[in-house]
Amino acid sequence: AQSVTQLGSHVSVSEGALVLLRCNYSSSVPPYLFWYVQYPNQGLQLLLKYTSAATLVKGINGFEAEFKKSETSFHLTKPSAHMSDAAEYFCAVRRSGNEKLTFGTGTRLTIIP
Amino acid sequence: DAGVIQSPRHEVTEMGQEVTLRCKPISGHNSLFWYRQTMMRGLELLIYFNNNVPIDDSGMPEDRFSAKMPNASFSTLKIQPSEPRDSAVYFCASSPGPQETQYFGPGTRLLVL
Q1: How far apart are CA A41 and CA B42, in angstroms?
Q2: Choosing a second label site near B39 at 20 to 30 A (CA), which of A6, A39, B68, B90?
């Protein structure tokens, strides 16, 4: 069965520092991968998705993620953190031909002024 | 363009009462998904519909839960009778097609006393 593992349930970075949120997937076939962000008391919003085109995917709000098959990873990065990035981030996987998204447990990002 | 609409946003009820959560998907979207989010279990897919037809309800916890989609613009998730362990945030999401990006509503926060 496909799944994703998010390393670190809480990550804190200083404002202006690099943001790195980790996601590893397990799938027997190349999957579709997603990052969603959830701000307090809101629903999930799609940041970016990998659909087997380019391995480096650029999303909204300056975020990007790189698909590395050799490492089965899809880590989310942003060069310079902003206070408004404080939120919970979810990695998700969907197998080709399947409608169901499987979410990771989430990483809460805190930005230190 | 209006996003996914959910009502109510908050619901407090007593154990044993019937609870009905409502969702209006984005116009033109053919797929609808119900999720539950808890601290212990994270985000879980409960059921999803394609063209108003339930496709997979394997995530529905037990017979106390039921979901309907009588038309393309409305879906309900009902819990009868409710129990304290049903307390969670329930999200509805819709997508243009079954394997396309899912757009989430703001969620209904349910507390069963």
Answers
A1: 15
A2: B68
Question: A45-89: per-residue pLDDT in tens?
Answer: 999 999 877 889 999 999 999 999 889 999 999 999 999 999 999
Q: Give residue A52's identity as a one-letter amino acid code.
A: S
Cβ B107–A43 below 8 Å, yes or no? yes
Q: Do B48 and A46 touch (CB under 8 A)?
A: no
Q: How far is B76 from chain A (nearest CA, A)?
A: 18
Q: How many CB atoms lie within 10 A of CB A94?
A: 20
Q: What is the dihedral of CA B73, B1, A59, A38, to 10 degrees?
A: -60
3-state secondary structure of B82: coil
The secondary structure of residue A16, as a DSSP letter, is: T
